[in-house]
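Sat 14:20. Reprocessing the chain from the morning session after the first attempt stalled halfway. Input below, unchanged.
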Amino acid sequence: MDDSRKKELITLLVPLIESLAHERKLRVLSHFDISSHGSLTKKLEDASDESLLALAESLDIFDLDPTEFMHIESPAANPLLVFASHLHLHQAFVGAVEEYLKKYGVELFVAHKSITPDAIWRQVIVEKLDAAHAGVAFLHSSFGKSDWCSQEVGWLMGRHVRVISLFFSEAPEAFLGERQAIPATNMSVEQVGEAIMDFLTSIDEIRSNLIDSLLNALNVSTTFAQTELIWLRLRGMVNLTVGQCAVLMDALETNSQVYGPRNWAEGRTYREIICDFLESQPGFVGVENRVSYFRANRMDDGF
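Finished this time. Tokens:
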């Protein structure tokens, strides 16, 4: 939201919140991650757009179209970063896998492609190793002889970050060998990409980050086929937060590649499917009015 719209929204919110009983007011503010310190107006000014919109939805202040106040296509909070450990000789293949994973909003850090020419490359690699949610080891011949690859994998495992081994021509050794590697010798780029996605989906600790990635990707999906790929991963997710539900609504309201097509496998439009999906999530409380408005006014918007 721009400053004037935010100020207008805060003006509407303050009297409603002040009218609540003290304990309920504290619970409401806490639920939407709004500070309990300072004046109410200051609390709301310091709150994120996402929290303010969710709070407004829950208090039912929108008489007309709630999208009037919305910050459209706000990126989800913390999408997945995966570190790729590989030999320079195979950078073209690894780079192609990186491009494939972008369809899902997942960043695969590939040093030869991801570091800008003027950056201090050692520093960038260390920063990515510290920030990565998971790792992928591309085990080609001589991988174990590379000091860089060994140190990268060791760094990630020292942080207790899960690392998947893709076996091309060299078996995993030492700590990396404690888990079964995935045979990848005859896999295509797409098959490797899907194997990595299966691996990421299996890790409970990064599930919320994966959801963030999928939601970001859905917002910028450019084809029905991409929407279908993303939805196949997203539809089984649970416990979406208020913020994640808001980003999913952004996609449904603004991206024709999401609100337009029909899911032929389910025999319904994505408009119906996503509204039903949102209603099953704990974060639905923050987008209930948006969903109601969409059901009442936008269900015929498809192709």
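The radius of gyration is 22 Å.
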